[in-house]
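The aim of this short unit is practical: by the end, you should be able to scan a pair of folded records and say something sensible about each. We start with the first protein, listed as its amino acid sequence and then its structure tokens.
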Amino acid sequence: MANWSNEELDTIGGADELEIAPLRDDGTEHGPITIWVVRHGDGLYVRSARGREGRWFNAARERHEGRVLAGGLDREVTFVELGDDGLNDAIDEAYRSKYRRYGAQYVDPIVGSGARAATLNVLPR
């Protein structure tokens, strides 16, 4: 599996928003949907604010492939569900730190249990 370059991590991780377009079973793109993205270490992570009920999230889980656009970069990606490996706390902190200016009204749901259960690692393809 490919790795992000430092430039890509800085660009995508530093972007306020990410356009995400998971692929449907027939290979066409679902979306794009505008969501928040965070960087933790050498990884990029996204969450569904609607938890596991989110349409884009379920599309990403079905095929595990799609496209993201952020900071002028357009990349084909693979989506990997985050297991319960202890990263969620660090990802919560990344969301709180990056998006705190939006206030608890918007940040609290994305660090809540429903969104935590709908966390994807975004990897270049």
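Turning to the second protein, read its sequence before its tokens, just as you did above.
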Amino acid sequence: MSSKSLGVLYGVLGVVLFSSKAVLVKLAYRYHVDTLDLLLFRMLFSLPFYILILFLIRKKSTETIVLPKDYVWLFLFGFVGYYLASYFDFLGLNYIKAGLERIILFVYPTIVVFLSWLIFRQKITRVQLTAILITYLGVLITFWEELDMSGNKVLMGGFLVLLSAITYASYLVGSGWLIPKFGVLRFTCNAMIVSTLCIMVHYSIAGNWTFMDYPWPVYAYGVAMAIFATLIPSFLVSAAIKRLGASNFSILGSLGPISTILLAFLFLDEKLTLGQLIGMLVVIFGVTYLSIQSKKRAKD
């Protein structure tokens, strides 16, 4: 198998496994698990693996000198990109379906474009603006049909998941210059450890201390989220990006909403209406169009 074919295989598997997170969260919520408890399980169960990886790569030198202030930025981006984004996402899944959550999260590339304009004054091209309008039209189509059925709950859930997309996009925009300093593996592991510490502090302040009182399936879903929806796909995606490049991989990301909706249909019995299908396809078209045009501009 060629390097590119292997990259596509890694990318598809990584996207599908990442997409399973929302379904696992919804399955755990059937046992009335607290949002903060579930997030704590996900991070604690994955923490030993990230510490082990840091230990294994400890002797590898970084390409540039890492300054003390870089660690401050690392903490900030771990807080925003992994802790806040995950917390808002898990909260939102209390109110909306897994499929809708993935469609809303999928708009983060358009938020990256907007934040780059707002912070770095990077011009928004006509192509980017067209892609953004198409994408949000698709979200509106999907969202509107859900509003007819669930009203305020969908508004609350959609807003929380949108906050998750915004915080994750902020992390991507802000950390781009920092990741090369640490290296992808070292940066990711440290950021995940920061996120776990933030969740532990949050839990020590606001938790109800009943995390040992749940039935065993809750802990099983926590382990599955940690390993199959967090750890393994993070390395599969890194391997895919290494073989395909970030721009090519971003096109594979279009599989995310589709795989989530299919998994939600299989395991959660979530139904997909014609209007929601149309909205999903419009969103995927908008983001894919943006990715393809960005790739063309990078070549030019």
